[in-house]
Amino acid sequence: MSIKNISLKNITVFDNLELHCSDGINIFIGPNGVGKTHLLKILYSACRAADPKVSFSHKLVRCFAPDDYRISRLVCRKRGNNDATICVSGSGAGREKKLQKISASFSKKTLKWDAVVTGENGWEKQRGDLSSIFIPAKEILSHSYNLNAAVEMNNVSFDDTYLDVINAAKIAISPGKNAAVKQTLLNQIEKIIEGKVFFDEKRDEFYLKRGNSKIEFNLVAEGIRKIALIWQLVKNGILVDGSVLFWDEPEANINPVHIPILAEMLINLQQNGVQVFISTHDYFLNKYFEVKRGTSDRIKYHSFFYENGSVNVESADYFKELKHNTILDTFISLYQEEMDKVMDS
Fold first, then answer.
1. 46: which residues sit within 8 A by CB, 6+ positions away?
2. Which of the ends of the chain has fewer CB neighbours closer than 10 A, N or C?
């Protein structure tokens, strides 16, 4: 099962947006402030709404955490914009390939998270077994001790993307599913982190286990911790055939030597039925996707940019095909400056 399309009207930085998604890997690029993370959170909220216990509109405010949990704060703040609409469509797997839609409509006068949500019943019936996870740009497992309880008591403030990923890392939902595929992915990741993740339930703490020694997660390099989180999510059965992964800036704090392995890992997940959405500013990660992809791999680039005061998007199957490509433009500019300096010396 996979997300097919998303349509936005007057949401955060977006006036109007129509995006068609790949069943495989979707790569969001563009300068800061064009709504890449916002879009990831909207899609993630829609995926979580497949659970009958989760309301789409409530999950939106839990993920965005606007003041007083007012969904009205998500209306695009331009003169004349009073109403907003989100519509996400997706299809199931196997016999359940019928396209289903879930939408939320609200205005500047909407109280709390009381949006008008439609399509939720059909969405739940078709996608009720959907597993999805959002990995924030900032690593969180090293801060997991009693974090959920502290948030519930209003002692600290974290949005649901952080709380959900901690819960997913602690609990195995389908440990025996796709065992052979899972073991291949685990072995690949273990080569990077040089160990395995261990969760101590009594201490409510995560460790990296190398041989007979346990290393506290906060003593492990942040880049390794982020990759170790993927290992834990794979082990716990979160990232399996039919699931959806959202990852905000996976390259952050990652040693450049691991970037090609990171690209391979995400391509492997896609090959095994995981739909992937990432936001990135990294030239090398984008290029390694191009270098390492096979003819059957489904990868699509989505470039967000400002034009005439509004955020627009263009999509292409290859990084080099994008006309609005600030990452490539910056890399070319650096190369030209370097060559000019060589010529002058």
1. 3, 6, 56, 86, 88, 90, 102, 123
2. C
Instruction: Specify which of 38-47, 94-103, 117-126, 240-249 reaches the highest per-range mean pLDDT.
Output: 38-47
Strand order across the beta sheet in which 99-107 lies: 14-20, 2-11, 83-91, 99-107, 116-118
Which of 286, 284, 311 lies closest to 300 in space, CA to CA? 286
Which tens digits make up the pLDDT trace of 159-184? 999 999 999 999 876 655 567 778 88
Rounded to whole angstroms, the Cα distance separating 286 from 27 reads 8
- Nearest alpha carbon to residue 303 among 289, 290, 317: 317
The DSSP symbol for 173 reads S
Whole-number Å distance between alpha carbons of 150 and 161:
15
Q: SS3 for 143? A: helix
* Element containing residue 20 per DSSP (H, E): strand 14-20
Reference 85, options 168, 14, 187; nearest CA is: 14
The encoded tokens of residue 29 equal: 């690029």
pLDDT single digits (tens) 128-157: 667 899 999 988 888 888 888 788 777 778
DSSP secondary structure string, 307-329? Answer: ETTEEEEEEESSGGG-SS-HHHH
